[in-house]
TrEMBL record:
InterPro entries for the chain: ATPase_NBD, FtsA/MreB, PilM
Residue spans crossing the bilayer: none
Organism: Hylemonella gracilis str. Niagara R
Pfam families on file: PilM_2
Protein name: Pilus assembly protein PilM
Origin organism lineage: Bacteria, Pseudomonadati, Pseudomonadota, Betaproteobacteria, Burkholderiales
Length: 384
């Protein structure tokens, strides 16, 4: 089961994102003109303790949750891509000579894996991706725009590879879940990679416009081989953030609420500014060695996400937006959102009481950012 394989599936691919709070599903299509279409978008709240640290703890309850999600979304595609949390995989970046033959490359990659992966290779699924050629192919593909200007790869240049190892039992858990609900697993990705793929898609759209023409303010006329971007994942109790230069992860960190001076996670006047003032110094310090930030993207479903975006933009003098992975897509059927149960039902009544909740809730547009990883998984049907 490939983790990073650039092979493209021939059928429509579902993106199924499993999080402790909910399971989210995205299905994408494409018009005859090549424009992406949002076919299905659905969310089903997760019963407590279905997932613990990304590991399946209650297989039956999780199966029931995903089955309801599929049934009520009305989706017919069966091929699915899922993801493991980044903490469940081992990721290493390696550099090898550019002119290796295919068989020699496989041998060198395995040798590097034996040296770098602190787990017997018999216990893991191993995959790798060649980073620079992948970006170059995106630039030459008429159906997609490169997320950033890409230099031409010379034969004498070394090539960077991303090496990923995942324990076999973790991958088999997801495979068993998919098969139990009637799906055919095609690929297992890494959740953080899926989110980055969706952000690169947004960047590709913004950077393909003439400088200053984009309404989102993220098109930057300054020449830079690869933009430096911060991706912030806002959660109720913490903020996970990554600093990226193209495909390179420069810095990653996590701030718990008590680390941020006890700022409130509830929406109130000034909540966004509180978060921004707590986060801005860390972001500024992390980007000092790499260079000025080109853009910040926010994901998650925290109420004051939009307020935080404006406050961070003011403090860091950098464009900052809530990442809506469906921006610019055609919606097959209005409304595109389909949330079958409110999360508060689980909190107020518990898993048993919530079984009777029947309300259908349409979230605000900012809630689209919670689907970033699911959308990134679905994009594997059209991109590596």
């Amino acid at each position: 089961m490939p983790l990073l394989s650039p092979r493209r599936p021939s059928q429509a691919l579902l993106g199924l994102d499993l999080q402790p709070d909910a399971a989210r599903l995205v299905a994408l299509g494409r018009t005859s003109r090549g424009q992406l279409v949002l076919e299905h978008c659905a969310c089903e709240p997760m019963a407590p303790a279905c997932l613990v640290d990304g590991r399946v703890d209650n297989f039956d309850a999780l199966t029931q949750t995903v089955s309801r999600l599929l049934r009520r979304s009305g989706v017919r595609a069966v091929h699915v891509a899922m993801a493991l949390p980044e903490a469940a995989v081992i990721v290493r970046r390696i550099t090898l000579p550019q002119m290796l033959a295919a068989e020699e490359l496989q041998t060198r990659v395995r040798s590097e894996a034996e040296r770098l992966i602190p787990v017997p290779l018999q216990e893991v699924y191993l995959d790798y991706a060649v980073l620079e050629p992948r970006a170059a192919l995106a630039a030459q593909d008429g159906s997609a725009h490169a997320p950033w200007p890409v230099r031409r790869v010379q034969d004498a240049d070394p090539m960077d590879l991303l090496l990923v190892a995942a324990r076999r039992e973790r991958v088999r858990e997801l495979q068993a879940l998919a098969e139990a609900v009637g799906l055919k697993p095609v690929a297992v990705d890494v959740a953080a990679f899926a989110a980055r793929r969706a952000v690169r898609h947004l960047m590709a759209r913004s950077m393909s416009r003439p400088a200053g023409a984009g309404a989102d303010g993220l098109a930057d006329p300054r020449p830079r081989a690869e933009p430096i971007v911060a991706l912030l994942d806002l959660r109720a109790d913490r903020v996970d953030w990554q600093l990226l230069r193209g495909d390179e992860l420069i810095h990653a960190n996590q701030h718990l609420r008590h680390d941020l001076g006890g700022v409130s996670t509830q929406h109130h006047a000034g909540a966004g500014l509180e978060w921004a003032q707590a986060l801005a110094p860390a972001l500024s310090q992390a980007s000092m060695a790499a260079g000025p930030l080109d853009a910040l993207w926010l994901m998650g479903a925290v109420d004051h996400c939009a307020d935080l975006a404006q406050a961070l933009s003011d403090l860091l003098a950098c464009p900052c937006r809530v990442a809506n992975p469906f921006e610019g897509m055609v919606h097959r059927r209005p409304p595109a959102w389909r949330i079958t149960r409110a999360r508060r039902a689980w909190d107020a009544q518990g898993a048993q009481g919530a079984q009777g909740a029947q309300g259908v809730t349409a979230p605000q547009e900012s809630a689209a950012s919670a689907y970033l990883q699911a959308c990134g998984l679905a994009l594997r049907g059209f991109q590596p």
